[in-house]
Amino acid sequence: MRRRTAPTKSKQRRPPERLNQLENEIIDFFVRIAPLLGQRRSVAEIYGLIFSSARPLAFDDVIERLRLSKGSASHGLNLLLLLGAVRRTYVPARRSQHYEAVADLGHLTARLLRERIAPELRGSPTRLEGALRMAKCLPAAKQKCLNRRVRMLQDWQSKVRHLLRTAERILTAGSPHDR
Fold this sequence. Notes:
Structural class: mainly alpha
Strand content: 5-15%
Largest sheet: 3 strands, antiparallel
Number of strands: 3
CATH architecture of the largest domain: Orthogonal Bundle
Order of helices and strands: HHEHHEEHHH
Number of helices: 7
Strand order of the largest sheet: 1-3-2
Radius of gyration: 24 Å
Number of domains: 2
Shape: elongated
Helix content: 55-70%
CATH topology of the largest domain: Arc Repressor Mutant, subunit A
């Protein structure tokens, strides 16, 4: 007859801590703005959880508390590291990687604008010039209308580029990175 032994500490799992109302609200905030920044829901959930935590969270905490797959959590954390939204941190007597939020939302937002939105606008001037050249082959009435609309797009694009530069200056003004 085999003796049953108590599970070792490494095999004992505590049930995942439930998200409290405040954590849910913060996560929901980031989930709602994620599509505006071109980010997936799971990335927003991970950032919201880490942002709302008073202590660094381990990879397993993220998986358990948000009920994410390891792949989704790994992808999300790597993206957040790349964006500078989270950083790895050392927790004494713990072997696993821990993450904490970089809570400088101004710099984070400015970086997203610079790295995600601005590149989308860079190729537009050439493409809009090409559209104007193509319009020359159209009948006069259509050409006049399309020229007016392409010029409207060029004007809008110029304003958006100016807005992005202004937003970046405002978002990063007076932050610790400027000192």
